[in-house]
Design brief:
Largest sheet: 7 strands, mixed
CATH class: Alpha Beta
Structural class: alpha/beta
Bound molecules: 5-O-phosphono-beta-D-ribofuranosylamine
Oligomer: single chain
Number of helices: 6
Length: about 210
């Protein structure tokens, strides 16, 4: 295991949706539960999304870069990287950010882009994971925080939390039970990064968080 380079403390969150995971990060920070991590900016590709409203209500810096305004995925990502670098962001957290990142974006933040996904990866990558899990009839579901690579929900796993699937569940009750775990797991991983407790084995692409 090689220790990761300096612990990233300046956190930029990217979101496209309602932003409940962003809210969990904001609330954890307010309770002093993010350690030395600091939320420095929230970026969105959807003007008017709930996450932006939550960020503004918390007094956070925000930017909106709408992907439709760009001729290519690469050009959009370059603009995102520039906006994040302008704020000296060291760790990028995808919290319901519904865009696939290009190799150029990932090269700008090597092993410093994390995503929260609502399934126990590698099961049920992609969209509607909770519904996929429910329809498959699994008895354990959950969420995963992983490093982002160029695949879809395929990067090294950092942390997971499992929940039972109950007999009287429907897709919505299961989604909410998973979401509650997401709100605990994501802040804990951000804190681990900021405290220098994350390492990635470059040969095997296996990520570890020390206690
Ligand atoms: C969460 O379920 C997250 O796992 C997935 O997108 C959803 C975002 O929800 N990547 P929210 O915007 O944080 O409420």
């Amino acid at each position: 295991m090689t220790a990761a380079a300096p612990a990233p403390r300046r956190v930029g969150v990217l979101a496209s949706g309602s932003g409940t995971n962003l809210q969990a990060l904001i609330d954890a920070g307010a309770r002093g539960e993010l350690g030395p991590a600091r939320l420095v900016v929230v970026g969105a590709n959807v003007a008017g999304c709930g996450a932006l409203g939550r960020a503004r209500a918390a007094g956070l810096d925000t930017f909106v870069i709408e992907h439709r305004a760009f001729p290519s995925r690469e050009a959009f990502d370059e603009a995102m990287v520039a906006a994040l670098r302008a704020r000296q962001v060291e760790l990028v957290v995808l919290a319901g950010f519904m865009r696939i990142l290009t190799p150029g974006f990932l090269a700008a933040f090597p092993d410093r882009v994390v995503n929260i996904h609502p399934s126990l990866l590698p099961a049920f990558p992609g969209v509607h994971s909770q519904a996929q899990a429910f329809r498959h009839g699994v008895k354990l579901a959950g969420c995963t925080v992983h490093l982002v690579d160029t695949g879809v929900d395929s990067g090294p796993i950092l942390a997971q939390a499992a929940v039972p699937v109950l007999n009287d569940d429907d897709e919505e009750t299961l989604r909410l039970r998973i979401l509650a775990e997401e709100h605990e797991l994501l802040p804990s991983v951000v804190r681990a990064f900021a405290e220098g407790r994350v390492s990635v084995d470059p040969a095997h692409r296996r990520a570890l968080i020390r206690a």
